[in-house]
Recover the amino acids of this structure.
């Protein structure tokens, strides 16, 4: 028995009536939790940032050696090839670290969205302990995919085979699209359903394909702020942009993708199979 | 669930300036049946709140005794009496969220977080405030605050729930809905619910027993469904 007020001015509170409103509700009413999300994303991204940063410095150093005539271009190309391969290999454990962090944050964002009580550290730990395996597997899969794609692209560059480059570019774009379509569903199903990793992948593939016309533009739009990294900045500007992206954009993106994924899962899965979490966190009586 | 018995209970308020004592309750003897919805009515200053606070253990009477199931509880502190009290001011912590307000009594009792969450979730769903758990009381309407205060009183699963003028800050049709809710809660949780109110006509539709008070004394006890007891 639930007491549902009929005459109350409950709508004056502007309780969210859809997932879009739920996103803004979380950002506005749970600001400190959102900021903590950003901090945690940043902390768990540190290995990734170090790998990217150090590899960039090493490549820059090699190119400087060419300009100073210390090494030949051919020798430099081999060293850059080796450096970037090593960096891409190291990206795999770095991604695992980041995804383990995300496995804990998924529990926190789920509780934010469901309007449940949040004890940040407690929920984070619980999220990690129940989700880390699936998240790590996905991180390893994505890391290996990235490594292979980059390796193939570099081999094409080395062999100066234009057609090979076109093929790897096409495969790369296809892999990126699939990643965008499948990854969010794998991640956020993990904290909701008791499914095997294969089952989650299969579900996610089906959901990704079915919602591709919306999911793909949504994901591209959501990740568009990261294009800021392609702009050249002087001095500390680059670090400010990275800081803002990780501390501000990343948690909002994570929350927004979680909300979107839940809206899809509500529509295709929860309504029939999990009514107890269908539309959870949304005020259902808004149109009474 | 305990039967509540007051035997010759008197409680006085002393004015230190004028050195005059006023009787809040005067030689009140009363037996309240368990698992009933009991309404205490009477004009302002007749002793309704004093009676509730005496049952709750917040006031110690100068004379007489209070028995729960025949056991003298006069020396039992308020937090050991299994009694929940909701005052008309709600007394919610403005800096805490609805969840923290409701869960506070359990937090003080060091109930583990998961159990606390479970119990807050259950009671908030029961009262229709589960979507308000992350909000602060200041953004809630009067009726919602009332239900938060109710939830906080019910979270400890008291045998007796005392409500002091719970409808005074609620207007319109919501009053009737809240009364209906209280009646349903009382039956569902099989507890004794004692409500002090001015609006006896409204409350009588849901209550079982009406106790009328005047000048600190009981003037009548009426069983609504049957005859006078």
């Amino acid at each position: 028995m639930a007491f549902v007020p009929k005459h109350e001015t409950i709508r004056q509170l502007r309780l969210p009536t859809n997932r879009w409103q739920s996103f803004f509700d979380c950002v506005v009413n749970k600001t400190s939790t959102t900021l903590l999300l950003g901090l945690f994303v940043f902390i768990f991204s540190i290995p990734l940032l170090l790998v990217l940063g150090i590899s960039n410095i090493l490549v820059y150093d090699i190119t400087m050696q060419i300009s100073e005539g210390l090494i030949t271009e051919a020798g430099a190309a081999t060293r850059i090839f080796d450096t970037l391969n090593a960096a891409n290999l190291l990206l795999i454990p770095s991604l695992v670290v980041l995804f383990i962090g995300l496995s804990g944050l998924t529990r926190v964002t789920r509780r934010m969205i469901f309007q449940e009580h949040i004890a940040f550290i407690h929920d984070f730990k619980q999220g990690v302990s129940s989700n880390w395996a699936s998240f790590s597997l996905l991180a390893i899969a994505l890391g290996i995919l990235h490594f292979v794609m980059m390796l193939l692209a570099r081999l094409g560059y080395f062999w100066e085979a234009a057609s090979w480059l076109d093929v790897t570019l096409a495969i790369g774009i296809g892999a990126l699209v699939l990643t965008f379509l499948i990854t969010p569903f794998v991640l956020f199903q993990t904290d909701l359903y008791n499914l095997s990793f294969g089952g989650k992948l299969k579900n996610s593939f089906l959901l990704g394909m079915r919602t591709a016309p919306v999911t793909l533009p949504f994901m591209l739009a959501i990740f568009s702020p990261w294009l800021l990294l392609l702009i050249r900045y002087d001095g500390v500007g680059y670090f400010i942009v990275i800081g803002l992206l990780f501390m501000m954009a990343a948690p909002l993106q994570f929350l927004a993708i979680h909300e979107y994924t839940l809206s899809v899962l509500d529509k295709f899965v929860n309504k029939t199979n999990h009514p107890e979490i269908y539309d959870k966190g949304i005020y259902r009586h808004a149109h009474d | 669930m305990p039967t509540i018995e007051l035997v010759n209970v008197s409680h006085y308020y002393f004015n230190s300036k004028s050195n005059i004592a006023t009787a809040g309750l005067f030689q009140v003897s009363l037996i309240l049946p368990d698992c009933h919805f009991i309404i205490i009515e009477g004009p302002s200053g007749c002793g309704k709140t004093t009676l509730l606070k005496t049952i709750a253990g917040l006031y110690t009477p100068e004379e007489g005794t209070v028995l729960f199931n025949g056991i003298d509880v006069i020396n039992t502190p308020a937090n050991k009496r299994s009694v929940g009290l909701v005052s008309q001011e709600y007394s919610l912590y403005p800096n805490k969220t609805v969840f923290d307000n409701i869960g506070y009594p359990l937090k003080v009792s060091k109930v583990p977080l998961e159990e606390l969450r479970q119990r807050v979730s259950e009671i908030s769903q029961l009262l229709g405030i589960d979507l308000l758990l992350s909000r602060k009381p200041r953004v809630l309407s009067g009726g919602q605050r009332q239900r938060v205060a109710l939830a906080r009183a019910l979270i400890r699963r008291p045998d007796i729930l005392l409500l002091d003028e719970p409808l005074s800050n609620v207007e319109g049709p919501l009053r009737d809905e809240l009364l209906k809710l209280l009646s349903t809660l009382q039956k569902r949780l099989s507890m004794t619910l004692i409500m002090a109110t001015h609006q006896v006509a409204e409350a009588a539709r849901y209550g079982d027993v009406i106790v009328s008070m005047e000048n600190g004394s009981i003037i009548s006890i009426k069983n609504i469904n049957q005859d006078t007891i």
